[in-house]
What does this fold into?
Amino acid sequence: MLKRIHHVGVVVPRLDDAMRLWRDVLGLEFTASATIEEQGVKAALLRIGESEIELLEPLSPDNGVGRFLARRGGGLHHVCFATDDVARDLESAREKGLPLIDQKPRHGLAGMICFLHPKATRGVLVEYAQPEE
Ligand code: CO
It folds into this structure.
């Protein structure tokens, strides 16, 4: 079952510059960062209450996040819902006929994750995440 908003994904040209805004100026609490080669991003999570902001810097202009940055100059990219069972909720989305990006969950910065296809959700890219303990 989807529980709450886990994080909102924001695409940025440079993670270091973005950290100066989100952490140093706005005061959000830095919780994690990683380079995720398979997704082609450098990412950081910053906590605000029960939710987080996920900053994404593309490693290449040729992947999805890189093309998003080139086309829109960065900005709001996706919303992620926390779930206690990402495989079950992905299966439920499939059964309801929603187009998917991921056919099965994979590792992400927020735990085990998957993405629905934005054409399923009228242009809003939706991620599910099951945080790791
Ligand atoms: Co995300």
About this structure: The CA atoms of residues 103 and 122 lie 20 Å apart.
